[in-house]
């Protein structure tokens, strides 16, 4: 029977090392069963699981590698792997794989300790841990710093609800975000991203800004908050709020549009998605006037929102056509996916209010962004710590991928 060896090499990373080691293995006609390499701060860790043919003396392979590694000034270890251990490893390839993404302004040992403790309690095995965010300079953190670590875990998850609950408890206690998703072929193959507008792409509820200009700010804000919390029907509340805008000069719309503050990370996210060939859309319970403004600014493909009725330069207090409420957002999402010829699993939906929940549920990846408590509780994923571009981390896209380095 052939011997199975695990060869591990560590030390200062040097050019040509991996080529030299695999060259030795090739000369001895060794089969490579698994291989992994990582470099952290110029320190190499290389592992190779090999099958040594029965006619080849394992000692010759080990001696050749030890001699070559010594030339590089590194350390090497060769361990025998039993047939039973190898078979157990092979059988593990059928187990489900999951991705846990830790999002924070900075990564601490406490965060890693608590997350890995949850993984251990549920008897999952960590295959890899990767930093997706860029390198952080020593000293004071730069403004709006981003930090992300991705865990790839494998195993039979007996109680996914309990697992998610524990992760959420850790996230809440440490004021970080923890996303948990199954590692499927769709994760890196999303094709369409749809966004709510108010308090998602922009840091405001436009109707509240219009209400301030019309002198009815407090009345409209109270109705808006109640609707976003899911306490009252969105369509009903929307008509009530619009009615209070009657008599507003349409020139106020242009002034408000020019002062809209884009949410953190939105411009970077949209630019990156565009480079990657994604289609994007705004599905908003707000107004088309502002959605079109953002469409041009952020180069978004599709816009669906509510048409504010204006006659002779004055807001009438009415809405033209059907209201884009929660149900309509979900319907439009499905229509866009069909038009683009993609599966719903390839769609990402992002929103913050209760009226976004239907589309968040319909999408393959639903993300509650700086959302109301009810939405955060019900959504599959939630981002509150970082900006919108943290969504790229949920897709497994690192800062290095984004920069092209």
In words, what does this structure look like?
The structure is a single chain. The protein is of the alpha/beta class and 405 residues long. The chain has three domains: 3-90, 2-Layer Sandwich (Alpha-Beta Plaits); 96-182, 2-Layer Sandwich (Alpha-Beta Plaits); 192-403, Rossmann fold. 39% of the residues lie in helices and 27% in strands. The strands form three sheets. The protein has a seven-stranded mixed β-sheet, sandwiched between helices. The chain has a four-stranded antiparallel β-sheet with strand order 2-3-1-4, with helices on one face. Helix 6 runs antiparallel to helix 7 (217-228). The longest helix is centred in the first third of the chain and has 15 residues, at 58-72.
User: How big a fraction of the residues is strand?
Assistant: 25-35%
End-to-end CA span:
45 Å
Radius of gyration in whole Å, from Cα?
27 Å
Low-confidence stretches: none
How does CATH name the architecture of the largest domain? 3-Layer(aba) Sandwich
What is the average per-residue confidence, as pLDDT, rounded to a whole number? Answer: 93
State the helicity in percent bands: 25-40%
Strand order of the largest sheet: 12-11-10-9-13-14-15
- Count of DSSP E strands? 15
Q: Pairing-aware structural class of the strands and helices?
A: alpha/beta
CATH topology of the largest domain: Rossmann fold
Relevant CATH superfamily of the largest domain: HAD superfamily/HAD-like
Domain module tally: 3
Tally the helices. 16
Look at the structure and give the CATH class of the largest domain.
Answer: Alpha Beta
Silhouette: elongated
